[in-house]
Write a structure and sequence with these properties.
The chain is mostly helical. It has 2 domains: 87 residues, Rna Polymerase Sigma Factor, Chain: A, CATH 1.10.1740; 66 residues, Winged helix-like DNA-binding domain superfamily/Winged helix DNA-binding domain (Arc Repressor Mutant, subunit A, Orthogonal Bundle). It has 9 helices and no strands. Helix 1 crosses helix 3 and helix 8 packs across helix 9. The longest helix has 27 residues. The relative contact order is 0.11. About 3% of the residues have low confidence.
Length: 160
């Protein structure tokens, strides 16, 4: 069982981390949540089945862990010391579009991340997030509009 856990961990650790980081926008919190996700995986690995089911399970657990984290009393009471943006990990610095996606409001960035970066279909995203398919379609449409506006503004600013 430990060999299977190590195999699954190595196969999906970067996917889970990207998903959690896109949700939290904080690599310290992403590390903590990722650890919780893989502890749960270790406890439940025996009854999960095939690889496709494991990946969907990991994504669902990661999203739920993020939601739980944001609902905690501790998280609601923290006050940022400064308004500075936290340093973005190296893999995310190289991709300007990903940085713009991460800057979107959480519900939009998560939908975009799952659809474009993780290649989930709208129905699968709706199932993972516990939302209606039309809600996911609307979020993706609004996110595309926001991205288009930000990219056009950035292109206009660069021309000056």
């Amino acid at each position: 069982m430990e060999e299977k856990f190590v195999e699954v961990f190595n196969a999906y650790k970067s996917d889970v981390y990207r998903l959690v980081f896109s949700h939290t926008k904080n690599w310290h919190d992403a590390d903590d949540i990722m650890q919780n996700v893989f502890v749960k995986l270790y406890k439940h690995l025996g009854g999960l089945g095939d690889e496709q089911h494991i990946k969907k399970w990991l994504v669902r657990v990661a999203v739920n862990e993020c939601k739980t984290y944001f609902r905690t009393a501790w998280r609601r009471r923290i006050v940022p010391i400064t308004q500075e943006v936290e340093e973005i990990p190296a893999p995310y610095q190289e991709n300007e579009l990903l940085q713009i996606v991460l800057a979107l409001p959480q519900k939009y960035s998560l939908a975009v991340h799952l659809y474009y970066y993780e290649d989930y279909k709208i129905a699968e995203i709706a199932e993972i997030l516990g939302e209606k398919e039309t809600t996911i379609q609307t979020r993706l449409a609004r996110a595309r509009t926001m991205l288009k506006e930000k990219l056009e503004k950035e292109a206009y600013d660069n021309e000056k």
